[in-house]
Amino acid sequence: MTWHRKDYREDRFRDGLILALVHSGVCVCAQAESGEYLFVANMHKSWQFNQDTDPVDTEIFGEDLGQRLKLAKRRVLESKKTEEFEIHIANDGFFQIVIDLVGGAYGEPLILTMIKDISEERHREQVLKNLLRELSHRSKNLLAIVLSLASQTARGQSDLASFLKIFRGRIFSLSASQDLVTDMSWSGAGFHDLVENQVKKYFPDDITRVKVKGDDPVLTPNAATHVGLALHELIVNLASRDAQNGGAVSAVIDCWVLPNEEGVDETHITWRESANSGALQPEFTNVFSEPMLQRIIPASVSGSAEIDMDGDTVSYSLVFPSAENRFN
Question: Domain named Signal transduction histidine kinase HWE region: which ranges (predicted)?
Fold first, then answer.
């Protein structure tokens, strides 16, 4: 919509409108019906011409685009209808071109060509498409993990109440890991944050019951999900054993990124659980924990794992390629 006072001469707006046009960043070219250029403002760096001579379409825009514009302007003159199209210039981006017809000061038609750089808009659209595609992919992966957890959890339980208790805990673990991944724009989750998120659910008053040492790599979304599940199984078992022994059990987690024999970096996560003398012998309270820790989780991160129960100590080690993480 446009508006101006009826008793105010339009030509008085000219300087102000030209200034506004220059600041808008939109390129505007005005041509006579003959094709003669009368005015050019904000020409993009992709197209330059000798300002000491009268420009022509093919000189400014090159042969291909120049001829396309010339034909489009001819159609606008004949049909009196606006033409609009989009072009892509390699290394320079996307541009929207609108060609319209307006009356001149003495009634002769003026051809206006407006060129707008829409590269940022197209970039945002592409980013959104990629995010939606990634969201769909990860949603499918999560559903597959949930179905696997449900199936494996059900195998070790004899009643619905036991199943629901354990299954809900594992779903919480997934949810907590996903929250961290989302907070980092889906790039992953910091290992120390992952541990803290899992520990505080079962030791809300003393998260130092599980101490973390070493490196703090940012795990990929896949690694964060499965390492989070491993931590959940270990921490749940620790909490159960701690309750049985009157608060006498604690654990230390070490995380180091080290090169293997071939010089390829690997992430080493080690859990060492210990108890005061006289504590009950360690055992996994859930039959699913051991296969989960020894087979399912290592396979999901292309790694390997070992569990060792010796006396009052529980040790668990997980090693996987550092392609599954990146440092802050």
Answer: 134-216
List, in order, residues 6 or more apart from 312 with CB less than 8 Å away.
274, 275, 276, 277, 279, 281, 282
Edge to edge, the sheet with strand 189-190 lists 189-190, 218-219, 325-326
What is the layout of strands, in order, in the sheet containing 210-214?
A: 210-214, 249-259, 265-275, 313-321, 304-310
Cα–Cα distance between 93 and 118 in angstroms, integer? Answer: 8
* CATH 3.30.565.10 in the chain, residue ranges: 122-326
The Cα–Cα gap between 129 and 88 comes to 19
Q: Write the DSSP string, 207-251.
A: GGGEEEEE---EE-HHHHHHHHHHHHHHHHHHHHHHHHTTS-EEE
By C-alpha distance, which of 224, 254, 250 is closest to 325? 224
Protein fold of 14-117: Beta-Lactamase (3.30.450)
DSSP per-residue string spanning 263-317: S-EEEEEEEEEEE-TTPPPP--SSTTHHHIIIIIHHHHTT-EEEEEEETTEEEEE
Cβ neighbors of 126 (< 8 A, separation 6 or more) are: none
The per-residue pLDDT string of the chain (328 residues; one tens digit each, 9 = 90 and over) reads 455 567 666 666 676 777 777 678 889 898 999 899 988 888 888 888 888 888 899 999 999 999 999 999 999 999 999 999 999 998 889 999 999 998 755 568 889 999 999 999 999 999 899 888 888 887 888 888 888 888 877 876 778 888 888 888 888 888 888 888 888 877 889 999 999 998 988 888 888 889 999 999 999 989 999 999 999 989 988 888 877 777 678 899 999 999 888 888 999 999 998 876 555 555 555 545 778 888 889 999 999 999 887 767 789 999 999 886 654 4
33 vs 80: CA distance, rounded Å: 12
CA distance 205 to 184: 27
Cβ(224)–Cβ(194) under 8 Å? Answer: yes
Question: CATH 3.30.450.20 region(s) of the chain?
Answer: 14-117
